[in-house]
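--- STAGE predict ---
source: upstream dedup step, 1 unique chain passed
mode: sequence only
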Amino acid sequence: MVDTMHCLYLGGFQDVCSCVVRLMIDSNAWGVRYGSAAEKMKRSVLAMLPDLHAYYARNGVDNSSRVNDFTKEMLGSQRKPALKLKGVETKTCLGFVAAMLQRFDLGDQGKALFIAGQAMQSIMHIFATHGRVIPDDQCVVLCDHAKRYVRRVTAGLVPDTPKRHQFLHLIGKVRVVGNPVYYATLLGERLNGVLSGIAAVAH
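--- STAGE serialize ---
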């Protein structure tokens, strides 16, 4: 689906967040010293939670946008990092991982992911500060941010996915169809359940 929910929140945002969280754990950013790999991951997640909640408190993040149940099972595997969040949770999580990348030195990969996250936040800022029509000069800026994002996530070793290709289409057609926040298919993933229920009753 070429919309902000799937191409950004459940696409680029989630890609960056999942790789940064995995990188912090693999780099032992919180200094977990004992246990098996699985136990260290579990303890790292527990050590990360106070930082996450402190970030939410500092930035006044609404409860509906917070990750309230963060477990190691949400992180996928080392070979295939994942972060199973709701769309609304990824936006604030992106800000959190950006703050952690400024706090921890995670090498060139961390620097690349930080720049990728900044590019995504800049794109969302342009969407948020314009109406349905985005001026031509800002369309050019959007394309610049999109290219910077793709270059940096590649350098950050983020696995390629079809959503990244869809994201480029989303940005590329802004000049023709307008600001994508105005034509997203659904405002929230939970509405999929509502739609499914209506369809079930109709049959």
